[in-house]
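Quick note —
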Amino acid sequence: MEKCKIAFPRFGNYHIALEFLFTKGLGVEYITPPPSTKKTLEIGSKYSPDYVCSPFKFNLGNYIEAIEAGANTLVQTGGVCRLGFYGELHEQILKDLGYNVKFINMSRADYQKPLTFYEEFKKVNPDLSVKKIASSLLTFLKMVECIDEVEDFVRQNVGFEKKDGEMEKIHEEYLNALKSVETKKDVKKITKEYMKKLKNVKLKKPKKLIKIGIVGEYYTIMEPFSNHFIEKELAKKGIVIYRWMNVSNSVIHNDGKKQKKFIKHYVKYYMGATSMATVYKALEWAKEGFDGIVHVKSFGCTPEIDAMPVLQKISNDYKIPILYFSFDSQTSETGIQTRLEAFYDMIIMRKEKKK
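Predicted structure written out below.
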């Protein structure tokens, strides 16, 4: 019987935690797809329906690159928008292309019933131990939380470092160190060590900071290449970047009731996927006096399209500028840079006018 070599689409830096879960918890070999590049998107776009969203194309490109790297089993996460239907289509496209791989589609599992996930993963390893997977899952969740904690700190401070590239170097070292962990205790220890290093980086923060919050669609906001590294571009201008949307906040600690109550004057009905969180954080940051909000989504993302008129209402009510980006396989790097420059200049002029 062929040895299982499993892969999951590239998604921020969560591949490190996923590798731990699959190798330690499921006892299978994990193939990490190469970082997403223009080539990844070109491969995915070539075999995707024309008007499907860019996350679909990136995922398909990731799958093909993972197969070429040796993967014979692929995992699709499922989701609460059209993503929940993409697994079957990805599987069919890969079969039509002649790839003979096993496909584990987690949209067949029920998030309200954890045992259904166990049943899906048993297809990967029939001898899967409930105790082992449970223990590994706790460490996996702690890794996700710590990755998000470290990246939140970097995001809010990297634009002010005296020595360019210092935080990025420490961050890379941290991610590499996580690859050697065995327990939740190891994760905490390594995170504490590298957070101390990050906090010791010398900064040159001005007294009056420019604060911008980033909201939007799940994949595009969290996979840097798909949004053309928009956070890094903003940070270069000496801006404090806030981004609530990550796996820790949206999955592990998400409080949908709190969000619904907070935005009740703007949203009466559930709009699906990430749209409620988009409105929730935009409203919170507007009330806190942020200087601006950037909304990112993939082209054609219906839940985020529905959120945009609400965001405009918040913008009008609180006099906060919002910059909208819609990304697809044809998005121009130059166009993004030009719009970011104009947005930054406008914020500076507004701040000068208020003095």
